[in-house]
Amino acid sequence: MEDVLQIFCKNNGTTIEAKPGSTLMEIYRESGLDLPYGPTSARVNNVVEGLTFKVYHNMDVEFLDITTSSGMRTYVRSLCFVLCKAVADLYPEGQIVLGHPVSKGHYCTLRIGHDVTADVVGRIRQRMAEIVEARIPFHRLEVHTDKAVRLFRQLGMNDKATLLETAGTLYTYYHTLGDTVDYYYGSLLPDTGYIGLFDLMKFDDGVLLRYPDRNDPSRLGDMIRQDKMLEVFKEHSRWHDILGVSTIGDINVASLAGRATDLINVSEALQEKKIARIADDIHRRGTVKMVLISGPSSSGKTTFSKRLSVQLMTNGLKPRAISLDDYFVNREDTPRDEQGEYDYESLYALDLPFFNAQLQTLLDGGEVELPRFNFTTGRREFKGERLRIEENMVLILEGIHALNPELTSHIAEESKYRVYVSALTTILLDNHNYIPTTDNRLLRRIIRDYKYRGYSAEETISRWPSVRRGEDKWIFPYQENADAMFNSALLFELAVLKDHALPILNRVTQNCPEYSEAYRLRRFLQYIVSVHDKDLPPTSLLREFLGGSSFSY
Questions:
Q1: Which of 78, 89, 300, 383, by CA, is between 20 and 30 Å from 29?
Q2: Is 79 exposed, middle or buried (0-12, 13-18, 19+ CB in 10 A)?
Q3: Where is the domain boundary, 188, 208, 225?
Q4: Half-sphere exposure at residue 520, Cβ-oriented, CA atoms within 13 angstroms
Q5: Alpha-carbon gap, residue 282 to 315, rounded angstroms
């Protein structure tokens, strides 16, 4: 009698009988599920796999569609391969570098020996449509790493060869799409016919690859200009070119050659130079009375504000920090979210009229008694701390709502200077695999929560989607309001975070829902040669998360 597997489908709580060697797509067809946008991948025993993955044992399976973060990654990853194939088909000597998400798409640079015109972009878009229509299968081949390295060297894809060569694994894999060979970190769709909506448009001096809106995959994401953020990415890319390190493989080579300390020193110096320039700009304006600092979770806002304060003092200014947290409304007045829980991320969790009244009094030369919010009682208190703005004093206001115009709507524009801080990871895994900036911040937060707040990786990962929703609603829409953008990500950062993060991630057990994300992060970190943090200066922004800072928090 032929063996039969028992596959438990977590989507509908049913058990499906399947033959050994059945693919996930075959199991989906037997499951009775009808996901509105179809599956893109699945969690198999809490590890994400592609739909061509074959099962040989009893498994728990949860099918994922494009509305999930993992499902969207699979879709976009596959779409990127289609773009790379289209470029390879039309411009065999050309090169495309898949950059970072910006303006609700992927900004990519294209080198084909002449200008990237609208006609060029149109031809590439048409070739992509033909590839999608042809329903060409994506194939994954596992080989000895030495063989994959030789293959990529022969194809002139030295970035991939260097990454695999320095990662230290015995076996690896690569992907094919027709006669095009490439390597992608993570699962791909079964074939190009699974790709629905996409667009390619000329953008700045490159192209923008657009994909469906995750919340409404029936349409493309709204095009939003993010020129200031794009310029930050381009500025750091220029630095990478000067230093000769643009991918993780390059960082690995430098680390293995004993040059990690040089990378640390140069990266820290570049950040300090940027902070000094922002301080100089604030001083040069002459009318700034308050600096508003915003950014998403784990972006390093606190350390940035302290280092900026030092640079402001070198300009003869007197920085004075005021915490936005002290202006929370009393707990019972806090707005509630869709689940009826207190929404502390909301702008209206702050007492805006009282906050603006105190600011205006200070700017008019008056004195105020500063509040202190008691997080135990959930109420505002006054302890007799009074403040009057002295000559050359600048208020430093740091918080997630600092760039929201409504926060300081009654304050004159010339009195304000806005800074957006975020860890905008500009180093690439290789030329066709970018590193999500959210991964950088999530790793920082996992380490900090574990070291200083007693939270496990499971707890931090489980909260992360809620944190991200709050950022989408209250932070990202206002980032282009900034007078200056500061990239808090460091060139060598992931190599330093690795040894701190892995032991924490390894504690997440397979039966936890968060195991899938912990496993993905662990796999990603395995590509990186670790660097010890002993050479980090005590003022480094990373010290906020790792410990050993000379600043008090």
A1: 78
A2: buried
A3: 225
A4: 24
A5: 9
For CA atoms 182, 183, 184, 188, give the dihedral sign. positive
Cβ atoms within 10 Å of 456's Cβ, excluding its own: 16
User: Does any domain span residue 71?
Assistant: no
**pLDDT attached to residue 340:** 84
Domain range for 82 is 77-225
CA 314 vs. chain centroid, Å, equals 33
Measured between alpha carbons, how far is residue 350 from residues 236, 293, 324, 356, 408 in Å?
35, 16, 8, 11, 12
pTM confidence score: 0.93
Whole-number Å distance between alpha carbons of 204 and 352: 39
Residue with structure tokens 């058990």? 15
Whether the CB-CB separation of 207 and 230 falls below 8 Å is answered with no
428 DSSP 8-state letter: B
Query: What are the residues facing 6 on neighbouring strands?
Result: 17
3-state secondary structure of 421: strand
* β-sheet with 416-422: strand ranges across: 318-323, 393-398, 290-294, 416-422, 484-487
Question: Which CATH number goes with the domain that contains 180?
Answer: 3.30.980.10
Judge if 217 and 312 occupy the same domain. Answer: no
pLDDT tens profile 67-102: 999 999 999 999 999 999 999 999 999 999 998 888
Render pLDDT for 395-451 as a digit per residue (tens, 0 to 9).
999 989 999 999 998 889 999 999 999 999 889 999 999 999 899 999 999 999 999
Are 157 and 121 in the same domain?
A: yes
